[in-house]
């Protein structure tokens, strides 16, 4: 599948591996790598949707979700409805085990296989990117397809982006003008 990726999409995947460090690559790492891109279709969409004003906020929100063990704000709110205070749990775990203990950082466990592994979330995003490209009859998978895949699945990346007005519909509108003409 990787041979069908454009140079920009490959750069996002490579950037995600770098973002993950020695840990498993997940959907959040793909988003962070996408946020670092310039001069690509994905970066064009993010800029068109006001990305310059909120990129740092998105990075902070992703870091906060990582501290919560990957729980989205919606999941934290649902648990609060059941009487479970996620912030209190995070505070207690970090008090006992150190800041970031719930982030699942494999460096703390001395784990490293020498090659990156992709978590279920990242694999799902890349598979969705392929499906989106095929559905649109695009010959190659670009970073814009990765962005569309990120906003089309539930989870922290989609929630954080939606808080800033980046939804599947808004991304599609910028890219394809409501299905008429392609951007770029």
UniProtKB/TrEMBL annotation:
Organism: Streptomyces caeruleatus
Keywords: Repeat
Domain Clp R residues, every copy: 1-184
Top-level taxon of the source organism: Bacteria
Organism placement in taxonomy: Bacteria, Bacillati, Actinomycetota, Actinomycetes, Kitasatosporales
UniProt-recorded name of the protein: Peptidase
Residues of the signal peptide: none
Pfam family, one: Clp_N
InterPro entries hit by this protein: Clp_N_dom_sf, Clp_R_N
